[in-house]
Amino acid sequence: ETTPPNYSTRFEARKIAVTFDEYIVLDNVNQELIVSPPMEEQPSVKLRKRTMLIEYEDTLKANTTYTFNFGDAIKDLHEGNKLQNYEYVFSTGDVLDSMSVRGNLTYAENLEAPDEPFSIMLYSDLRDSVPLIDIPLYVGRSDDSGVFIVNNLRPDVYKVFALKDGNNNFLFD
C-alpha cells in the first residue's frame, strides 16, 4: 500500500509512505536509490515497522514525471529476498510519462559486458560536452551485466551516456 498512491498525478506531497505486508530491511538505500529526474538533495528514507517513509525538501518541477527506483535496497527481514527495482512513480502534472529506454552496455574495445553497474544518463541537450557541464534530465543504472532500463520518460530525442559516477554528482569529472 502506498500513500499517496503509486502512479499519482497532480502530485504535491512531501512525504511518501510505502507499507509492506511483511517486515523489511533497507540495505544501502542511499547508494541504491535513484531519483529521476535527479533532485538536488537525496530524499531521506526511513523504516517504521512495515512502512518505508520517504521525505524530501526539493521543489518539484512542473508537469514532470518522477521515478524513485530502489534498486536492490529492499529485502524481506526473515529470508533476505530482494524486491528488485521497486519503483514509486508520480507526476506533478496531469499525465504520467510512459516512454522508456533500454539496452545492454558493452566495452567498445572487446564487446564484453561490464561486471559492475554504470550510471545511465539521458540529456535533451545534444551537445557532446553536456555531461561535463550539466546534470542529466533522467538517470538510471545498469545491472552488473550491463543491462539497463530507464522508465517514465517524456517523448523526446536524448543523448545517452553510460558513466562510472564515482562521486555520485551526475557529472563527468
Descriptors for this entry?
173 residues, mainly beta, four-stranded antiparallel β-sheet, three-stranded antiparallel β-sheet, 2 helices
What does this structure look like?
By secondary structure, the chain is mainly beta. The model has no long low-confidence stretch (mean pLDDT 95). A hairpin with a 2-residue loop joins strand 5 and strand 6 (51-55). Helices cover 5% and strands 36% of the residues.
Give a short summary of the structure.
With 173 residues, this protein is mostly beta strands. It has two helices and 14 strands, in the order βββαββββββββαβββ.
Q: Which helices and strands occur, and which strands form pairs?
A:
Blueprint: E1 2-3, E2 15-19, E3 24-26, H1 29-32, E4 34-36, E5 44-48, E6 51-55, E7 65-69, E8 74-76, E9 87-91, E10 99-104, E11 119-123, H2 130-133, E12 138-141, E13 147-153, E14 159-163
Antiparallel strand pairs: 1-2, 2-6, 3-8, 4-7, 5-6, 7-9, 10-13, 11-12, 11-14
* Structural category: mainly beta
Categorize the overall geometry: globular
The radius of gyration is: 16 Å
Largest sheet: 4 strands, antiparallel
Number of helices: 2
Strand order of the largest sheet: 1-2-6-5
Helix-strand sequence:
EEEHEEEEEEEEHEEE
Relative strand content: 35-45%
Amino-to-carboxy terminus distance: 40 Å
Helix residue percentage: under 10%
Uncertain segments are none
Using DSSP, what is the number of strands? 14
